[in-house]
Amino acid sequence: MATYLEFIQQNEERDGVRFSWNVWPSSRLEATRMVVPLACLLTPLKERPDLPPVQYEPVLCSRPTCKAILNPLCQVDYRAKLWACNFCFQRNQFPPAYAGISEVNQPAELMPQFSTIEYVIQRGAPSPLIFLYVVDTCLEDDDLQALKESLQMSLSLLPPDALVGLITFGRMVQVHELSCEGISKSYVFRGTKDLTAKQIQDMLGLTKPAMPMQPVRPAQPQERPSVSTRFLQPIHKIDMNLTDLLGELQRDPWPVPQGKRPLRSTGVALSIAVGLLEGTFPNTGARIMLFTGGPPTQGPGMVVGDELKVPIRSWHDIEKDNARFMKKATKHYEMLANRTAANGHCIDIYACALDQTGLLEMKCCPNLTGGYMVMGDSFNTSLFKQTFQRIFSKDFNGNFRMAFGATLEVKTSRELKVAGAIGPCVSLNVKGPCVSENELGVGGTSQWKICGLDPTTTLGIYFEVVNQVAQPPIPQGGRGAIQFVTHYQHSSTQRRIRVTTVARNWADVQSQLKHIEAAFDQEAAAVLMARLGVFRAESEEGPDVLRWLDRQLIRLCQKFGQYNKEDPMSFRLSDSFSLYPQFMFHLRRSPFLQVFNNSPDESSYYRHHFARQDLTQSLIMIQPILYSYSFHGPPEPVLLDSSSILADRILLMDTFFQIVIYLGETIAQWRKAGYQDMPEYENFKHLLQAPLDDAQEILQARFPMPRYIHTEHGGSQARFLLSKVNPSQTHNNLYAWGQETGAPILTDDVSLQVFMDHLKKLAVSKIMCSC
Amino acid sequence: MNVNQSAPPVPPFGQPQPVYAGYHQSSYGGQPGSTAAPTPYGAYNGPVPGYQQTPPPGVSRAPASSGAPPASTAQGPCGQTAYGQFGQGDVQNGPSSGVQMQRLPGSQPFASAPLAPVVSQPAVLQPYGPPPTSAQVTAQLAGMQISGAVAPAPPASGLGYGPPTSLASASGSFPNSGLYGSYPQGQAPPLGQGHPGAQPPQRSVPPQASSFTSPASGGPRMPSMTGPLLPGQSFGGPPVSQPNHVSSPPPQALPPGTQMTGPPGPPPPMHSSQQPGYQLQQNGSFGPARGPQSNYGSPYPGAATFGSQPGPPQPLPPKRLDPDAIPSPIQVIEDDRNNRGSEPFVTGVRGQVPPLVTTNFLVKDQGNASPRYIRCTSYNIPCTSDMAKQAQVPLAAVIKPLARLPPEEASPYVVDHGESGPLRCNRCKAYMCPFMQFVEGGRRFQCCFCSCINDVPPQYFQHLDHTGKRVDAYDRPELSLGSYEFLATVDYCKNNKFPIPPAFIFMIDVSYNAVRSGLVRLLCEELKSLLDFLPREGGAEESAIRVGFVTYNKVLHFYNVKSSLAQPQMMVVSDVGDMFVPLLDGFLVNVSESRAVITSLLDQIPEMFADTRETETVFAPVIQAGMEALKAAECAGKLFLFHTSLPIAEAPGKLKNRDDRKLINTDKEKTLFQPQSGAYQTLAKECVAQGCCVDLFLFPNQYVDVATLSVVPQLTGGSVYKYACFQVENDQERFLSDLRRDVQKVVGFDAVMRVRTSTGIRAVDFFGAFYMSNTTDVELAGLDGDKTVTVEFKHDDRLNEENGALLQCALLYTSCAGQRRLRIHNLALNCCTQLADLYRNCETDTLINYMAKFAYRGVLSSPVKTVRDTLITQCAQILACYRKNCASPSSAGQLILPECMKLLPVYLNCVLKSEVLQPGAEVTTDDRAYVRQLVTSMDVAETNVFFYPRLLPLTKSPIENTTEPPAVRASEERLSNGDIYLLENGLNLFLWVGASVQQGVVQSVFGVSSFSQITSGLSVLPVLDNLLSKKVRGLIDGLRAQRSRYMKLIVVKQEDKLEMLFKHFLVEDKSLSGGASYVDFLCHMHKEIRQLLS
């Protein structure tokens, strides 16, 4: 087992890939019977400090339908200077530059340790990074002030040649021209009018006027840049200017009558931002950063009317089909998101408000373009400030941890096809021989566009084994290969290609089930299944998704459990599956699938992040981590269970979105009594401090910054903890379990124990659900 | 003769109220001192007073008259002395005597008939004595004429009496002038001295109205005419005179004396002139005076022929009249000035005809609105619609509710009735005014308009005195004055909220043309200082008006100039298809608070657009934006638009170039005046609803479609200014001056005007710059002191003589400090059952104002030719009716004009010749549209000078004399090539330099040594330190000060190509575009009248 764990870990570190199965069933039928699909989590830009990019271009397979890239799996005939594509078996000549190639003189891409390699493409002029701020001005004064400061701060973090632009909106939308001296100039748009991209570009003067004089004079090379850069200027030129401009930003001056919401034209503002970039820098990395403090209340994309007495839609309203603006607004933002994606730009949303801001409707903007979604209570919180700052963090080379305009291409060997991908991407609709007819996630293509990504951005990619049982029998020890080719714009403005080629052994299920079982990566599988579930939840009713998950789980247990029929007590799962049901239990209770107690915006927010984080983070999201601090020893991870809540412990829970520090009853009393201030109880002081330090560490590293909650026994915020732990003790069974330990949870939810009991019962029973 | 009769029919006026009475009395009785002026008139006044004399104290009675004549006669001979004696005012005598004299002779030659009437007239007149009915006057005038130029002359020269060396004068009218001091025309002199003898006889001729006999008609006379004429001249002054009409010329020409003595020259012309069949009988007032000197004879050789053609009734339209014999506007103006300029016009009496607009006079409000506020075409309205129809005299009032007053006159008192608001009639809603009758001891009042009896609210109650007047009548402006203001209560405000002070928005075209011409820079520079002079109310420290700025080309740029900003912010709105205002706070600001930011903005605007390449502009969206801005600010206001080109950019209100000269004189010509699209009307409607007035400054280099662009200004009570081919160097002063005046002038906003009338007549039609959403309320987004509304009335019932007819014009408006007020003007008119009364109380200037506006509106819907014909026909009908009903019988060949309307033909001709109705080749479509809309809101004084320009000789009078020299008639032949003339019509100002002007003069005025060195087209005179230069420049400045728009000076040299332009304004001449000369037109008119009569 250890070997597989190591293997998995190794692979992950080298290639950023984790497969649900690390030995692949060799036939289609067998594959489907495995319940958990063959899939992987791919982190395309996983940070590899040890991998310097090579400064030349990759060698492609010459078959037009293949174009796979030369990799260590290819067979090479050094003498003939030929190589065989391991995907299509085409024999290719090495290009002239490889004339000196030999067994001892191999190019990097042929070395096994370079299964992942990055090429820098020298062609084409580097284009600068572009940041377009879209700022809501319908904010409270201190909120606006805080936002302004954050924005001003961000200017100092940008590379000097990055282009920045500013759009502000409230009742109107203003596009600020940044080049003018002495007067600040902006173009203003009505916030209620849906404009086409063409109209927007005309109004901004971006379209080149049909100059009748053109023939007379030779084309003016100056013209084009001057036009487009009026709104987007290199930061080093207009640093002061923009700082002042931001400093002078006023609250939206239009009066807001009593009982009304401010009129906020988010929809139009975004539309203009998209149109502006579309007209000026198509297919260049650009980031539209939307800062909003409330829901869009007018124009296309409005989410709620301006009457305060009509609250913004809730899940209840949505279920009752009572959210009158939702569909239209969603459509508007989807249209924008698709356009943005087509142009290779991404949209971030930073929404800070106590109420909902319409993330449900706008979610597709970041989701489809690889932008960030950040939700907070106010711009004047460290949550926002630090999260925002973290966006501009740099890697070990001093480059931003962000990349733009990526396309991910997946090539598979013949036995496999690509069924789809789930992550912050859109389909490029590229059909090919390796595209499956069955879709899982965003399918029907072998290429996806990821407009914005960072080193942690992770996609779930699903495959289908297409080998029919006996057709071309797979040779013993044969391997299936998959190549991931990611073209992207590096934050240093270079274009790069990262190629990852992986291979796994085929195994016959009949004979080698044990191998396959042992090569099961239950963590990856849980996340991949969760992604599928969450993806379904976006379009299906919640209960249906839960039922589907349950069925999958039961089938998996039936397939891989060891049991005697109709004897639940005999049910056992091997080590490689042992944690899986527990993941599923927590997933069922997670906010990704449960909407109870969450607003539609929160759901969207959680799902957004779930669909882009890497495996570790995703697992935390599914099953939060709980640490316990006590005088009895060093901090230890404990079960996420109510029995872990003890009076003399301090608990630290990390749910990814929240960091909760919970002081047990006794600890809380001690603290109240002030023992920590007494020199003789310094150890208590240290105990109190320990979780804080650990929390700080997590807070520092994570994006987006989690909500930090410090609470104690009986505190109102303790609910964050209580809602997550497995309710092994509830008011129902309190006495049955005796008073021994833990804290009862007031809930009717089933506990893990009950869940497992049911699972066992169902797994061993003959009653099979159909699908 | 036929002539005089008009007077007789006059019913006995209980009071002589009509103008004449008023002023006679005052002038003579009241203010002897003032007589100075009158004296000169001897000409007219003469006669009048003649009758009056006796009753100088004011009672004008028959007896007096009878007595008078003799007296006058006596005087006649020793005219001068006589004047001298009278010193004070009774100048009249002279002339009066003349009158009598004339008649006698006159009668003799012709049928006896004339005599009789004449005689009778005086009698009749006398009773009215005071009201020198038109008849009388005319009679006198006629007399004058006849008597010769003599009589009339003197009037003009009033001053000149002392040294009336007739001879000198006679010979060369102009030269004489020198002698006379200010009065160049030599006529005066002749009078004095010599002719005594001769004159009297002539005078006899003058029947009231000016009548022209056509030679033809005069069949019988003809012979006599011809015959006598010749001899006449030589001596026979008197005999000649007989044919009243006919004869007149000879006398004029040469005061007998003069003739004799000297100027042989004149006589010949005279002949010619006389013969022309049509001679004006008009009493001497006009023609005679000037006529003689100038060469009339020679120019019109044709005249002679007429004379000769006696036989056929109207053989050929007899062409040539003696231009001096036909009514002269100059003379009429001059006479009125002298007669009435000295006395304040007291408005207490119903139906008084005020002095002419060209006369400077003070007004004392004693219950009727000053003529500065309201002028009527007639101050005596026919009682029935039948009568009105018969006379065809339009009944109209020209109302200028916010007219500016001279400093000597107080602006209307503001009355505050507190919470309850102004007191009004319950039924017709008329406002309390001096004509309301209090009854039942003051507990009720009867509405003077609808006769409804209303309760007097307790807080307003007051006892009545024994005459039924309220005891506090004189304490309350609304009970004693013709014009006053009420403070409006909240009920009179939009949305029942007191208004917020208005705002001015400056909207500046910054397209390529505007920038290149220097306009933008100039304007921005000017605005910096101009903003300190926004109109303020009363003694307010600073103006309450807020300002905002917009620039635009194809898109609009709004500016945030909030005081707290370090620098202005520009906001570009490109969505011109769906205009909106991008900001609220900081757009409209208080000037003093935001001065620094505004200054910074105005400094930067020219820089920002210095390199613009944008040539396209939008227009409607700009107005829309301004209007929306005001709407957002919930206030009324005014937009100042500075625009250069046809708005061809893609946007609402986009226009295309549709200028097509081929349409002229076709049925489609009217489309040139119509707006291209209805969009602008709709926009204007919205503007009016918001109280958004639009002033448009145009700087076109080519066609901009003024007809369409001016729709909004026109309907919102705004002004349009046009500076074709604007160049900073040349047009800067004119533009800046207009701009300053326009920005500074006091404006009322968001106004509604309603004219209420006595039962019996009703306001039916309105002309001017405003919008009407129903048939009664004139809605004006803005109204300034220059804007005039002409209102036409029609009968819908009978009026009665006793009650007269009342007009009440109520204007509800927001002052520039944001106060809501009601301005009320009341005017009482007389009613008559006799047509003659109507004709005797008409005001030709007002009539022309109405007719011009009517015609100018007509061109929108009918072919221009139709409009012209309509005008001519109406005019002919008016005159024919007079002839038929009021004038004493006379031969058909005689043209008889009512005294009050004797200038109608000449003025009407000017209207017909104006560029709108008869465009010359050089007049652009835009010019026509521009003038058309301009005239629409002109007041009477403006139309008067616009249609009949003033032509002032500059070197005739002594240099020391810096007052305005008397004008001369607008005809080329009045120009002497040794002189310099100023010509102005309210829009244009020319300095015409004769080819043989003395070098000294050239040197002192132009600073160059010879005529040939004068730059033609020069627009600024050099500032030279000599009397003449100062005088000329002073005069120019004086003229400019009188007009609401700055007139750019153009120096025109005789025989230069620019002279063509200048000649266009010599309206008595035949115009290049085919307009008839005055003389020709008069003939034509006469023909028309005769056709109507037959």
TrEMBL record, chain A:
It holds the Pfam family Sec23_trunk. Residues 58-98 form the Zinc finger Sec23/Sec24-type domain. It comes from the Eukaryota. GO terms for biological process: COPII-coated vesicle cargo loading; intracellular protein transport. Residues 126-392 form the Sec23/Sec24 trunk domain. One of its GO terms (cellular component) is endoplasmic reticulum exit site. Residues 521-619 form the Sec23/Sec24 helical domain. The keyword Kinase does not apply. Residues 403-507 form the Sec23/Sec24 beta-sandwich domain. This is Protein transport protein SEC23. It comes from Capra hircus.
UniProtKB/TrEMBL annotation, chain B:
Residues 499-743 form the Sec23/Sec24 trunk domain. It is found in: Cytoplasm, Cytosol; Cytoplasmic vesicle, COPII-coated vesicle membrane; Endoplasmic reticulum membrane. Residues 748-831 form the Sec23/Sec24 beta-sandwich domain. GO terms for molecular function: SNARE binding; zinc ion binding. Keywords: Cytoplasm, Cytoplasmic vesicle, Endoplasmic reticulum, ER-Golgi transport, Membrane, Metal-binding, Phosphoprotein, Protein transport, Transport, Zinc. Residues 422-460 form the Zinc finger Sec23/Sec24-type domain. Residues 59-77 have a biased composition (Low complexity). GO terms for biological process: COPII-coated vesicle cargo loading; intracellular protein transport. It is a peripheral membrane protein. Residues 1-108, 149-327 are annotated as: Disordered. Residues 844-943 form the Sec23/Sec24 helical domain. Residues 24-37, 90-100, 166-176, 201-216 have a biased composition (Polar residues). Residues 961-1034 form the Gelsolin-like domain. GO terms for cellular component: COPII vesicle coat; cytosol; endoplasmic reticulum exit site; endoplasmic reticulum membrane. Belongs to the SEC23/SEC24 family. SEC24 subfamily. PANTHER family: PROTEIN TRANSPORT PROTEIN SEC24C, SEC24-RELATED PROTEIN. This is SEC24 homolog C, COPII coat complex component. The gene is SEC24C.
